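Lab meeting, action items carried over

1. Structure of the two-component assembly. Owner: GW. Status: complete.
Input record:
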Amino acid sequence: MNRNISTKFWVMMIFFLVSACVTVNIYFPAAEVRKAAEDIVKDVREQQPAGSEENSSLSPTSWFFSVAEAHAASELTVSNATIRQLKARMKKRFPSLAPYMARGLVGEGLNGLLTIKSLAGLGLKEKAKLKKLVDAENKDRMALYRAVAQALNIPSSQLSRVQSIFAQQWQKTAPKGTFIEIKPGKWVRK
Amino acid sequence: MTPSRLSFLILLLGFYVATVQTVPALSYPLDSLPISLSEHNIHQIARTLPGASLETDPDGKRFRMKCKVMLRDLAGSKDADHAFEGLDLFLNLDMRGQTNERGLNGIWKLKVAWPKGQFLFFPWFFDMSQIKGSLTANGKINHNKLFIDYMKIYGPFSLEAQGIRVPCDAKESGRDCIFRLLKSKWKFKAVLNRLYNLLVKEAFSDVHPFVTKLEPKGRMRAWGEKTRVALDVDANIFFKGSLMLNGLEVRLFYPLSSKSCENGQIRWRDIFLGPIIPKEIFKSPSNIRIAGKELPVTICSDRASFGPLTLDTGNGTITLNEASFLFSRGTLTLKGLGIKDLKIHQLFKAVPISVDVSGYLPDAHFQGDRLVFKGQITVRIAGGTVTIKNIWIEPYAPIFRWGADIKFKHIDLKKLTEKTSFGLVTGAIKGRIKGLVMSGGQPEQFDLLIKTDESVKAPKKISIKAIENLSILGGGGGSVSFLGQLFKEFSYSKIGISCKLKNDVFELHGLYKSGNKEYLVKRGFFGGVNVINMNPNGRISFRDMLDRLKRIGESSQSEVEVK
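Predicted assembly:
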């Protein structure tokens, strides 16, 4: 009987020791992601005078053949060639998206992606145009989140946290009238 | 089949054949047809439809219905991606038959025209007033099964079909049903330009702007055979208005059995790559051509394979044994990609020295989003060799990326610098670029190491201009002191530079250290020149580095020691 109790005791001890050994701590650089989100979203949403942004990216050939035409992007906490180019595309697209957002047709989700809330009042041609815009924007946003995560050595399993942090910034800077997802499935108009 | 189901079937047939797709969930804001189809029988339809007439025998089992009606402003949607609205349909139906306990039997004739309307089948949008057309069809109904004996659609394309049974059986899978329809006797013809504008240009120009620059002119035919679908294209392809592909003939077959493959080929008379190759970058784009006149193509139900193919640049060749595309995954596999004596300096305007490229990449396959190449490419430049390994590309990424690991040795700096504006340097270097990542043509990440290659015996001299440029990169002002200006060149002992790029920050270091000084270029024992790295912590932002590259060639104060 005593031997049986002793065996159970040691089994329990081993179980606790093993549990302690497999504890995994994943560091998530929330502050860095937040800073990156603030900078990137601000840059995308702040419209500068025409022409200023066009010159801010390097053409594929300019790096090798015409450095003199190159112009540096703004210095960010997190930046690289992919992020700069994605940002430039999103900035160019934003003036087309903004009116639809202000009309409450497109909402900013908690996952950092755009959602079409309504297509009311749009003809089929405009519906197709809006869907293409939203699809292209979401594709670029996902690529942006992956690039930011990669730059900060964040594992892909934590990508949703990056998205959530960016979502806050997208929502904060969205045009007035945009639908904002404040809780999963619950939307309010800004 | 009950009359109400029959009536629904007739109208559904009209939509089905007019759009060549099923519209399972229709909403009916039909001003001219104020009925709910699912609740009414054929008598009610005949009474309600303007211009419809119905004759029946006394027991109500034999009937003849004639219907000539204009349906205006039809709208419906399956979901946000599939909808139509503002659709006008001219419908002329003549149907006769009988009903009994085994169902409905009869014959029918139908003519449909669509003068206007809009269709969304995302990403395609069709304005029907721009693609006016009509459909004529006749057939029979045997025990509730609908057969199309003959059908013809005129419009932006023509489609003729015979002996088709629709819709699918409940037991059939969607794929089986489509394959059964494709095995029927049908023939599709189109003017290529109209079809391209309709299916490609309109839908994809936003995402892929280059499609607007392409213009195919010619004809396309496709038809169903018992075991396969055949495709036949005769065309000339223009790019930005210039002829790119002359006398293109495509003969391809798609097998309707999952176990078989079909051989086809793509032939051409001439290919001119000049129109698609930027003139500002290439010396003689018109000299670059595809050698041979035929590309064998094998299509199986799950993949297509092309090859072999040889690209003759006039200054070296690029060959590919086989490229395979897997339909289900959208992935590409390449086999036997070879580069032989490709003389880059004779191709590119901006390459001032001799650069010969050769290599063999036996296999390339997808790992995640990356197409990873096995093998290596060797570049002969400035008396030395550059070896490029671990090459990968991300062809489907929103921003095109590629990467590689590079090693170089015996690079003669005199040959490398004498024809550039950097300034003359003699001696030889070796080194490596580890983990190079290029994104959209811009460097995203690398780890570069350059040092003097002692195995090459050559004088080690560096000109004032090169010193000034190196000192700019090293964070100095970029000009040599008055004493230094008295000399045209200086001797040096070693060059040693490491430069890393990550997150838009360059980390530049000299490999040789003395006290708290870090040297990019170190002088010899009996004098010469030192170029000192003046970057705090060696870190330079992307913006600063580009500014420095711009300033190269200019001069101001420097951090150069001359003894």
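2. GW to write a short summary for the group page. Key points so far: Chain A has one domain: 29-189. Chain A touches chain B at residues 58-65, 67-68, 70-76, 78-82, 84-86, 89, 116, 119, 123-125, 127-129, 131-132, 136, 139-140, 143, 151 (CB under 8 Å).
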